[in-house]
Amino acid sequence: MEEVQRHSVHTLVFRSLKRSHDFFVSNQSILNLEADEKTEKMRYSVKARDSYGPIFDRVAAVEQEKKKADYFGKSTEHTESKGNEMALVPSSQSNNNTNESTSSSALLSIPQSFSQSQQQLIPKKPSSIPKPKWHAPWKLYRVISGHLGWVRCVAVEPGNEWFATGAADRVIKIWDLASGKLKLSLTGHVSTVRGLAISPRHPYLFSCGEDRQVKCWDLEYNKVVRHYHGHLSAVYSMSLHPTLDVLVTAGRDSTARIWDMRTKANIHTLCGHTNTIASVVTQAANPQIITGSHDSTVRLWDLAAGKSMCTLTNHKKSVRGVVLHPTLYMFASASPDNIKQWRCPEGNFVQNLSGHNTIVNCMAVNSEGVLVSGGDNGSMHFWDWRTGYNFQRIQASVQPGSMDSEAGIFSMIFDQSGSRLITTEADKTIKIYREDDEASESSHPVNWKPDIIKRRKY
Length: 458
What we know:
Structural class: alpha+beta
Largest sheet: 4 strands, antiparallel
Radius of gyration: 32 Å
Number of strands: 30
Strand order of the largest sheet: 3-30-29-28
Oligomer: single chain
Distance between the termini: 82 Å
């Protein structure tokens, strides 16, 4: 028995390709689709049906209803009732007395679909766009210094007495909201702190950072009580579910992980994004989790199934900020091309907010309908949520001794009352803004010119 010669997989694959080529090379260029009239006609019909199918159906329905109207208007017929159905009978089988009554009833009952289709064809009157609500302009009233690096994140306590910030100096600092004084410093991270979340039901503060760590701090003892291990790279954003004891974290490994706060178990790992997830938010209603990523998409997730419900691909550049409206069932996503508003739960597009032409790192919105976007160049734009009207623009000034390039805004949040806006910036400061009490509608009028083409009514 002679030994079978062994070949490498590479040799066998190319030998198979060569055999296939030699087998089919004689049939090359025999079938000429361009010369086949029947195939060409079929190709055009499929293309037309794919592109203009609804228009063809609408035209056919209108023609059919028109024939019905002509038939009932010019010929004489009557109907025989059988149960709930209407049966048309030719006029030669009926007398003249029944003709008049039945033809009139037929005209009243049957052509309803015709009238409906005609109503659909009537062009709708352009919707009137509501005028934006007047909002008082905002002004800077406090600057807080204390961090030794870029201040990357901020969270406000549910009781509205203090707020926490995390920075590139690896320290979490807790500040008194009323006075702006430092109350506490928490050390434990070994790299930049990128996300903070404060539980409304437990005395817990959660933090995440570029050291891949997710920590749970017990604020009664001011120490770490739990670690959540699993992320493969830096963790950039986190959010607490408002009703469940569930924590959601996301970051540079392109995944969002759902943790049980008590047991530290990784319940779900949400996979689907192809680049860094920069922002994650949670809400009690569906979709319960929304993520924005550097792959230019926004994904809506089903928390129970741990799967993506919908992917929004309208953005052309990285989505670094996602924010939920506190009272409306809506959310907004920010990208250098546009800020876009969406309606839950399907993620229906509402309108574009155009004009903030920079890298938008963060957004915040209060119950009064004031949406604020913060840019990487230190610019802040204030918008009316309902109409998308940009009523104010602020250029944050850097601290003395800082470079102009350190004017970036990394995060922002409204306090629980919505009357104060806290921003964290690249010049190592925390700035607090509030409304100008002396402003009025006469001193700061609404200079509004709506763009009907780009805006939608909702």
